[in-house]
Design a protein that fits this description.
Layout: H1 6-12, H2 15-18, H3 29-36, E1 44-46, H4 57-65, H5 78-88, E2 95-98, H6 100-112, E3 118-121, H7 128-135, E4 139-142, H8 153-161, E5 164-170, H9 182-189, E6 194-198, E7 219-224, E8 237-240, H10 243-252, H11 260-270, H12 273-295, E9 300-302, E10 309-314, H13 319-328, E11 331-333, E12 344-348, H14 352-368
Parallel strand pairs: 1-11, 3-4, 3-5, 5-6, 6-7
Antiparallel strand pairs: 2-8, 7-8, 9-10, 10-12
Bound molecules: pyridoxal-5'-phosphate.
Length: 372
């Protein structure tokens, strides 16, 4: 009998992937609560840019009422694509939905990259661009943002000249909170690249470029229901693509990628836009409150933000130390262990009571003055 060992299997795996570090995801509320020994209601979760108001009432009702969970979803996503197209004012042929916009990032790269082709990434930014580039066998070309977190256009032009094929620009950017200007995107389009503008946070600020997709050859705009519409756990994202790319994506995507629950919740959310927009307005107001309050904490220096989170530079202490002390108190914020972000924390905007709890905990930390 032939026995296989771990090393036998390893020999069969892609060496480039074995060498790759995985994406560092956040943990769900129940896991955090259990680790701390506190009830889940006590967790103040400000680490995932999730929506503290949850799904809209109509989305919750649609999820409860749907009776077709035993039937595969429409692989062509007809109803959802039609509703999204009407909502956006674009042709439905241009719209494709995914299991989160994360899946669309991966699919765009599968559709474009041959092994070793270049993807331009502008850190600090969303980690899925570099992650999916590695998984798809692309070559990551990093062009770091400038000190004010704006794009380094000359650096990008240079990378495009060295074989960059696709560029990802989150606008507003995660985790820095600033938006790219239309002029900057125009300049990127002039470079001949496929330009993917990720508008995961555009409902909270910045200008949407969805209407541009109809007129430009190489522009993609990605959107999601995770942040403004409170559906992060259901995984529902979408994009507006040039026609040839949209039809290719529909052919190469996993056929049932947008599940029945996600389709029902998306359709109902689009009928509940008034409620969702009101919540967005609350979060934007809370963001400004939180900014003002954090600016007065000696430990933190927040950057202005157009999204539902604030990036803060940590001064006079290690960012990780602050993160850990907050976590002990049931308050979870995001720390990124990357060279550009090591001294920073990203804090999602929550409910007013979350802001209060965070500020109380930070005052305690400042008062104990045991921080290094
Ligand atoms: C959260 C986030 C996404 C992921 O959205 P999903 O639809 O939940 O996959 C995409 N892009 C950016 C910049 C994000 O911050």
């Amino acid at each position: 009998m032939r026995r296989t060992s771990a090393s036998d299997v390893t020999r069969l795996l892609r060496p480039d992937l074995l060498a790759m570090e995985g994406y560092e995801p956040i943990e769900p509320t129940d896991v955090l609560a259990e680790a701390l020994g506190i009830p889940p209601e006590r967790v103040v979760k400000l680490d995932g840019n999730e929506n503290p108001y949850g799904p809209s009432p109509r989305a919750l009702a649609a999820l409860a009422d749907a009776r077709s969970y035993h039937i595969y979803p429409d692989p062509q996503q007809r109803k959802v694509r039609r509703a999204l197209a009407a909502y956006l004012g674009v042709d439905e042929e241009l719209v494709v939905a995914g299991s989160g916009s994360d899946e669309l990032i991966d699919l765009v790269l599968r559709a474009t990259l041959s092994p070793g082709e270049g993807v331009i990434d502008c850190p600090p930014t969303f980690g899925m661009y570099s992650f999916s580039t590695s998984v798809c066998g692309g070559r990551l070309m990093e062009v770091p943002r400038r000190e004010d977190f704006s794009l380094d256009l000359p650096g990008i032009e240079e990378a495009a000249g060295r074989g960059g094929k696709v560029i990802f620009v989150a606008s507003p950017n995660n985790p820095t909170g600033n938006a790219a200007t239309p002029r900057e995107v125009e300049a990127l389009l002039d470079l001949g690249l496929l330009v993917v503008v990720d508008e995961a946070y555009v409902e909270f600020g910045g200008e949407s470029l969805v209407s541009w997709v109809t007129e430009r050859e190489r522009l993609v705009v990605l959107r999601t229901f995770s942040k403004w519409a409170g559906l992060a756990g259901l995984r529902a994202g979408y994009g507006v693509f040039p026609p040839a790319l949209a039809s290719l994506l529909l052919r190469i995507k996993p056929p049932y990628n947008l599940n029945v629950a996600a389709q029902a919740a998306v359709l109902a959310s689009l009928e509940d836009v008034g409620v969702l927009r009101e919540r967005v307005a609350f979060l934007v107001a809370e963001r400004e409150q939180l900014y003002r309050k954090l600016a007065r904490v000696p430990l933190l220096r927040p950057y202005p933000s157009q999204a539902n989170f604030l990036l803060c530079r940590v001064e006079g202490a290690e960012a990780r130390w602050v993160r850990d002390r907050l976590a002990e108190r049931g308050i979870f914020v995001r720390h990124f262990d990357t060279p550009l972000l090591r001294g920073h924390l990203r804090i999602s905007v929550g409910l007013p009571e979350h802001t209060d709890a965070l500020l109380r905990a930070l005052e305690e930390l400042v008062a104990t003055d045991s921080h290094r």
